[in-house]
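ARCHIVE CARD
Drawer: 12
Card no.: 0347
Subject: one protein chain, sequence and derived structure
Cross-reference: see card 0346
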Amino acid sequence: MRKLTFGMNLSLDGYIAAPGDDLGWSTPSDELFQWWSDRVGATDLALYGRRLWETMSSHWPTADQQPGATPAEVEYARRWRDMPKVVFSSTIGTVDWNSRLVSGDAVTEMRRLKAEDGGPMDIGGATLAAAAMRAGLIDEYVLVTAPVLVGGGTPFFTALDNWVNLTLVETRTFPDGVLLTRYETRR
């Protein structure tokens, strides 16, 4: 059975995007960017909701060809293109960049993917991750918390019907006071 991880940058007050989908507060340090890049390199399959897919696919497929692209950005762009991806959406018709589209029931498909043999899966996108949280499918939560309060926006966590007990497995501090915490779900 595959492991499913939900990890994102978030504000101290728990938002992955400020009002208006503003992400200006979450620019990573070089060290944190490398950590995310290494994570992409180790991910066997990424699951994306439509909005995050549109954000990522509008930049990373050609980011390594942009003037002034850093070696780290070139590496991330290559890793992102090479990583297999599943995009969940009922409103877009096609995806590319080593991706396939699922327009049916997301929870059913995520359960099927988890049951397969294979390496770790990451899930991204607040709406998709919320469905996985409510269904009890997430095995690990990775919170990369920036020392900023944005006051609203898109929350990292969704409302749940039941408690989810977690075990802290890692903490790490990055430049600018950014704190990584990893928690495994206790089953």
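Annotation on reverse: The CA atoms of residues 37 and 105 lie 30 Å apart. Residues 4-185 form a domain with the Dihydrofolate Reductase, subunit A fold (CATH 3.40.430.10).
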